Amino acid sequence: MRLPILALLLSCTACTWFKRNHEILITSEPPGAQIWINGHDTGETTPKAFDIAGNFGSDHLLELRKKGYRPEQRVLYQHTRGYTSRWIDGAGAPGVPPLPVFWTAGDVFFPFAVKGAIVPGEVYVKLYREDEPLLGFDVLRANAQKAAAAQTAPAPTAAPAPLQGEGK
Known about the structure:
This protein is of the alpha+beta class. The chain has a domain at 15-130. The chain contains three helices and nine strands.
């Protein structure tokens, strides 16, 4: 009799369930692009599945590089959500005291949960050759970079005017 009670008590000691979608698939066209995450070379090439997700992580910057192609960047967002089984969820009708009769076994043994995932879970990136024309946001980015460079460049100075009597 004591053994089943002890087993039940030991199974209820941890009441928080941590679940995560732990892999992200990265593919590219053409395949074989170097994968950089947060500015660090992973030493891997596409296609590749990575285990970078977690419940309490942060966003990641993904960059794909291949010789002869323009590098492309994508942001991978960390999404974390908490869940709790509420006692009121067991209410069957107005006026009936709430009882957890509609709870699942998971709600009983793990009434709290934390779910985390990297969004998107699959990333496909098309790399463009360096000699191809810029399109869409790449044009806007190039124009913004040119404008920023023009503002930071030193203003040309006029040549000093010759003094009277010079140049004769």
